[in-house]
Amino acid sequence: MIAEGNRRTAGALLAAVALAVGPRELCAIQVSSGAGKYSPVSGGTRCLGREGGIQIRVLVEAGTLGGSEAELAEVVFPVAGDRDVAPHTHGRVEVIYLLSGEIDHVVEGRTHRLRPGMVGIVRPGERVVHRVVSSEPARALIVWAPAGEADRIASRLGERPLPPDAGFACSPLAVAGESATVSHATARPEDVETLDAILAALYDVISGPAGVPRDWNRFRSLFLPEGRLIPAGQGRDGRPGYRVWTVEDYIAQAGPALEQRGFYEREIGRVTERFGNIAHVFTAYESRWTPEDPEPFQRGINSVQLYHDGRRWWIMHVVWDWERPGNSLPERYLRGGR
Question: Is 61 exposed, middle or buried (0-12, 13-18, 19+ CB in 10 A)?
């Protein structure tokens, strides 16, 4: 079943849920009456999917909603995701609201073309296939009602923890088949002349008070077009995890949180190795919400790989991990801190 509206609103999505579930089933879903705790905001709870296949960021489930009425997820269907498009069924009503790209929404053998702003509905037990027909991955919001479908999908596709950095949520955007380029931005010469300068610019450009936009063109100008940012640490469940971001992914996913809450990060130590035109820097950092905070809320190490093209330095990759019990910053990385 498909439906199309003139406005891409959450109201259309919720209306589609009510339409798909129907009055009888809707009454059967027991709405929590305040007994369960809920989170007024959520950046997501976990990531589902295989590398190179469908990527799912679960946004709302029982733990955040305070009940089992529904689950909400952001999904990216990759162009090259054939292993995930085999016919399958769901145990709950599934409502898909397409944000970008195009997919063939095949329900019980009947094909329906979904374009941005359209809604696809699948009833429990119906066989469905989602095939991307656009040249770029398709992005969608999905509601499952009642809750419980995320666990079923996790058992089939696997799951990864969200990076625990404050405000940093799992980004499903960097998937196989998606191009990743940095918008052209001209660097300030003084930012890229030396290793000291480019690392100082990296810390400076992401730091600032709440409500003040960051200079994201300056940020872009520090990176090669193929540059990547990779949080790689331990999730809330204690298991190792990582996430690969393009520069644009980082701006889209981490940028709003940095600007809304305020964020200051500074270097507290460094170990540098250089050979020819390449350099590797272990730069220890500490993060605060405001410069006046007596203690940092986080410390860790940014592992930065850089390249010199004969005229300037470029950041190739930034990979970072953070302190936690059993993973303290070694003293050798704190000597000579700035």
Answer: buried
Q: How far is CA 279 from CA 257, 306, 313, in A?
A: 30, 5, 9
pLDDT at residue 113 above 50? yes
Q: Answer whether CATH 3.30.1330.10 is correct for domain 189-333.
A: no
**In the chain, where the domains are located:** 2-161, 189-333
For the record, the structure tokens of 283 come out as 């730069």
pLDDT value of position 171: 47
pLDDT digits (tens, 9 = 90+) for 244-272: 888 888 888 888 888 888 999 999 999 99
CA dist., res. 281 & res. 323, Å (int): 18
Provide the 10 A C-beta neighbour count for residue 299: 19
Q: pTM surpassing 0.70?
A: no
CATH number attached to the domain at 2-161: 2.60.120.10
User: Rounded CA gap, 44 and 72, in Å?
Assistant: 9
Predicted local distance difference test score (pLDDT) of residue 201? 96
- CA–CA gap between residue 261 and residue 239 (Å, rounded): 27
pLDDT digits (tens, 9 = 90+) for 190-215: 999 999 999 999 999 999 999 999 99
Query: What is the dihedral angle through the alpha carbons of 161, 227, 137, 143, rounded to the nearest 10 degrees?
Result: 30
304 - beta bridge partners? 281, 318
